[in-house]
Specification:
271 residues, alpha/beta, six-stranded mixed β-sheet, three-stranded mixed β-sheet
């Protein structure tokens, strides 16, 4: 886990960092494993009262590792990106599958999670940021629901969380287009809690403030607030079912090929 995610704990605050800075903290198989392992560890750390989630280097998380798409291009679209064979409809963690748990696990933690975001949070990286209770962004941070670029849908627990944060028409526009939007837009959409020059420092300060409150009351508050959302189970399963149908399909393969070859896609009519 340490090669992808580091955890240090002091004074009740867990400082969790994605440490794949040379790849803009992109999500490869090892990163997924490390993120799930981190949530499992923190869920049992009784002394933790708040968590700060950040990425080292110039980005929070650039999304799915480009190597996975390159592998899909080389295989002609056979199998999922990166060559992994996984039945996404199988629920491995309660209502979530394994990739979803890399995001949903932060929502399930019994204590508040604050994401400190610089650079970009694209695709799966954006969904990872959604797993936090709060998001603090730099003024020049950029975000995108980028899955449409690759002929896919957001399938890492993003949709049930977004439905509770963003106006329906805005959510649809961002999902259908994959448009990159600014920190200021994120604030107006309800996706940013605060914008500041030093989000990690601000997140740590907020985490320490929370850690100074009654741990029983903080955990009770998170349990209560989590119950305000509608049952996420159907949305989590719908993500997986739709993604399973798209992965490796002709139009999804064409989306990958067109992007990798830097040309306009030639899509067949929807079937």
């Amino acid at each position: 886990m340490e090669q992808r995610v580091s955890i240090s704990i002091a004074d009740g605050v867990a400082d969790v960092r994605l440490v794949r800075a040379d790849k803009m903290n992109a999500l490869d198989a090892a990163m997924f494993e490390a993120l799930v392992a981190a949530t499992e560890r923190l869920a049992h750390e009784k002394g933790v009262r708040a968590v700060v989630l950040s990425g080292e280097g110039r980005a929070f998380c650039a999304g799915l590792d480009m190597g996975r798409f390159a592998a899909m291009k080389e295989s002609g679209g056979n199998g999922v990106a990166g060559g992994e064979k996984r039945d996404l409809s199988i629920r491995t963690h309660g209502q979530a599958n394994f990739p979803q748990q890399a995001v949903w696990g932060w929502r399930q933690l019994p204590v508040p999670v604050i994401a400190a975001i610089q650079g970009v949070a694209f695709g799966g990286g954006f969904q990872l940021a959604l797993g936090a209770d709060m998001r603090i962004l730099t003024p020049d941070a950029r975000m995108s629901i980028m899955e449409i670029k690759w002929g896919l849908v957001p399938d890492m627990a993003g949709t049930p969380i977004l439905a509770s944060l963003v106006r329906d028409d805005i959510l649809r526009e961002l999902t259908y287009t994959g448009r990159i939007f600014s920190a200021q837009e994120a604030m107006s959409y309800g996706l940013a809690t605060r914008i500041c020059d030093h989000p990690h420092a601000a997140a740590m300060e907020l985490a320490r403030e929370i850690a100074g409150k009654s741990p029983d009351a903080i955990r009770a508050n998170k349990r209560m607030l989590n119950k305000l959302s509608v049952d996420p189970g159907p949305a989590l399963l719908a993500e997986s079912v739709e993604q399973q149908k798209l992965l490796g399909s002709p139009n999804q393969t064409e989306a990958v090929l067109a992007n990798m070859e830097k040309r306009a896609p030639r899509f067949a009519e929807a079937g």
